[in-house]
């Protein structure tokens, strides 16, 4: 036996606050990944938020071995996990709600998504824990940026009708949907059930196309609400990978007043894209606001 095994020693150094850690943010290994299990016609996850080494409230330990003599058990601990990210998002949503009490939950979600951060503090694209560039199925729209979410410019309001239609698209009968909603006059949209209709007509602040075959075109519609100044004109720019053709119509959205709406369509076509999921974004800008909607398209 080596002599130093008989009297082992250890040194515990004081903790230090590591400021301006780089690169950050980064998608943790345990972060939830897409595609969604229920349907691939809605891009998941929506967002990401800080969830690594978070100082959080915790149940005090009852194990005497965890508590130094003469001290009380701590009511706080350093925790990591999606359970740490969720309170950050809830707090950000409450922060936006406090500034805009009339906004619906889906409008708040939209504001958080379209203003999310997709680059780290080195100016590079956000990466996953292995160093590879994060995709929409790794980080959703990006990491929350609560201050930017206070003034998103445009929002996408996913209404109760959108969710009822989703049930129809997914395969539920209109009679059952009426029982759930209490709306005796509700009727399922023509063409339901169809997962493709979820992708094309569900007014969500992101886009997911689960199947894009060669020689085919998939057209997705969205409706935006102007929550910024009156007399605003937004112009579209596209981030698209090689082999994927995108067409946005109209290329400009004109809002004469606040709270007015404008609809547009995004058409996707494969022109030699590799099979599998490919990612990008459509961004609307009026010069003061940048409204980014990510997309994921599965080329088959």
UniProtKB/TrEMBL annotation:
Pfam families (UniProt xref): fn3_6, Peptidase_S8
Domain Peptidase S8/S53: 23-122
Coiled coil: none
PROSITE patterns noted in UniProt: SUBTILASE (PS51892), SUBTILASE_SER (PS00138)
SUPFAM superfamilies: Subtilisin-like
Highest taxon listed in the record's lineage: Eukaryota
Swiss-Prot/TrEMBL GO biological process terms: proteolysis
Keywords: Hydrolase, Protease, Serine protease, Signal
Residue ranges of domain Subtilisin-like protease fibronectin type-III in the record: 202-297
InterPro entries assigned: Peptidase_S8/S53_dom, Peptidase_S8/S53_dom_sf, Peptidase_S8_Ser-AS, SBT, Subtilisin-like_FN3
GO terms for MF: serine-type endopeptidase activity
Family listed: Belongs to the peptidase S8 family.
Name under which the protein is recorded: Subtilisin-like protease
Lineage of the organism: Eukaryota, Viridiplantae, Streptophyta, Embryophyta, Tracheophyta
């Amino acid at each position: 036996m080596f002599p130093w095994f008989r009297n082992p020693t250890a040194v515990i150094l004081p903790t230090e606050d590591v400021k301006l850690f780089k690169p950050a943010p980064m998608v943790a290994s345990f972060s939830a990944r897409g595609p969604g299990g229920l349907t691939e016609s809605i891009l998941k996850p929506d967002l990401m938020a800080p969830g690594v080494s978070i100082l959080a409230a915790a149940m005090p330990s009852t194990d005497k071995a965890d508590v130094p003599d003469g001290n009380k058990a701590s009511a706080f601990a350093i925790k990591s996990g999606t359970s740490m990210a969720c309170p950050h998002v809830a707090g950000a949503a409450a922060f936006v709600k406090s500034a805009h009490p009339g906004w619906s939950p889906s409008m708040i979600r939209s504001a958080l998504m379209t203003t999310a951060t997709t680059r780290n503090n080195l100016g590079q694209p956000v990466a996953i824990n292995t160093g590879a560039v994060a995709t929409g199925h790794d980080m959703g729209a990006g990491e929350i940026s609560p201050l930017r979410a206070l003034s998103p410019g445009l929002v996408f309001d996913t209404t109760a009708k959108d969710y009822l239609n989703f049930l129809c698209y997914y395969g539920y009968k209109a009679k059952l949907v009426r029982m759930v909603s209490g709306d005796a006059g509700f009727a399922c949209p023509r063409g339901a059930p169809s997962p493709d209709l979820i992708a094309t007509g569900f007014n969500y602040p992101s886009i997911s196309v689960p199947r894009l075959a060669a020689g085919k075109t998939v057209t997705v519609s969205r409706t935006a609400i102007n929550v910024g100044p009156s007399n605003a004109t937004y112009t579209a720019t596209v981030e698209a990978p090689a082999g994927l053709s995108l067409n946005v119509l109209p290329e400009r959205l004109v809002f004469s007043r606040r709270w007015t709406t404008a609809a547009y369509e995004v058409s996707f076509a494969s022109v030699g894209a590799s099979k599998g999921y490919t990612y990008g974004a459509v961004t609307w800008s009026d010069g003061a606001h940048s409204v980014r909607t990510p997309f994921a398209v599965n080329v088959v």
